[in-house]
Design brief:
Elements (H helix, E strand, L loop, with lengths): L11 E4 L3 H6 L1 H8 L7 E2 H21 L6 H13 L5 E2 L5 H19 L5 E7 L3 E3 L4 E4 L1 E7 L5 E9 L15 H15 L7 E7 L9 E6 L2 H6 L7 H10 L28
Parallel strand pairs: 1-6, 2-3, 8-9
Antiparallel strand pairs: 4-7, 5-6, 7-8, 9-10
């Protein structure tokens, strides 16, 4: 007599940086994260990539107790823009402009944001965290882990974009809670201690002129609670698991990213019809 075998539940890896995309447009998330479809990155995207690499060198050198040098950061930034080994569509912004904007924002970050933060971790790659009850595996690399004046730990993430920070220094935090929640959970898992300070967004606005470039720090209170929920109300991760588990990858034609530039299935998406 054959024994009854319970099928093993499939565990789906979810990158922290992709979770906001899942809630914005599940169809786009499926195309990019399950079907590995891609669109070429644009010049504005290269600003964020180059800036991340350059300021990471600065912050990591400080963390190690070494003296960071601005010219080294500038070399890294230059290489990220001019020696990129991936397809880049420069139609939205040419390389000279990208380098000029990225260099200006790098200087603003180094002089206005970095000195105000006490980092204990820079570009922390965390071990995957499997949530078997939800069928998810959380993965991600945390930009920064900081310690506040109360000696509480929190996570920080660098965000660039044309509306990242307003002219009065207010940082856009709406929509970032899911990602910050995963980073907080991963940081706590990696450090084996509570990460209870607010998540910080280091916002840098990518204006083409100095007048349109703003930097600031915004905070999100208790992002892990928003993600995990409470006994009375399920968190966002529960809803994400339901979408993925049941394959309900519906589209959102009203998404701000619903365009050929950002979505690899834009031309064939049935939800746009």
């Amino acid at each position: 007599m054959n024994a009854f075998v319970v099928p093993k539940q499939r565990i789906i890896p979810v990158r922290a940086s992709s979770l906001s995309d899942l809630f914005d447009c599940p169809a786009r998330w499926e195309a990019k994260n399950l079907n590995n479809k891609r669109t070429p990155s644009g010049g504005k995207t290269r600003i964020g990539t180059a800036l991340h690499e350059a300021v990471t060198h600065w912050d990591y050198s400080n963390l190690l107790g070494e003296t960071p040098y601005l010219d080294e950061c500038q070399d890294i930034l230059h290489s990220q823009i001019w020696d990129a080994d991936e397809d880049t569509d420069w139609s939205d912004m040419d390389q000279n402009t990208v380098e000029s904007v990225a260099q200006s924002l790098m200087n603003k970050y180094i002089t206005q944001i970095a000195p105000t933060q006490k980092y204990i971790g820079v570009e922390v790659k965390c071990e995957p965290l499997i949530l078997s009850d939800l069928g998810l595996e959380l993965t991600g690399t945390i930009d920064r882990i900081y310690e506040n004046y109360n000696r509480e730990l929190g996570i920080g993430d660098i965000k660039t974009g044309k509306m990242a920070t307003s002219s009065d220094g207010t940082v856009k935090t709406v929509g970032h809670a899911p990602q910050m929640g995963i980073y907080t959970v991963l940081a706590s898992h990696a450090l084996q201690e509570p990460v209870t300070a607010p998540a910080r967004i280091y916002g840098l606005t990518t204006g083409k002129t100095d007048k349109g470039q703003h930097v600031g720090i915004g905070e999100i209170e208790s992002p892990a609670e928003v993600l995990l929920g409470t006994e009375e109300e399920p968190g966002l991760l529960h809803h994400a698991a339901q979408v993925i588990k049941h394959g309900v990858f519906f589209g959102n034609s009203k998404s701000m990213l619903c365009s050929e530039k950002y979505c690899p299935i834009f031309k064939t998406c049935k939800f746009r019809k």
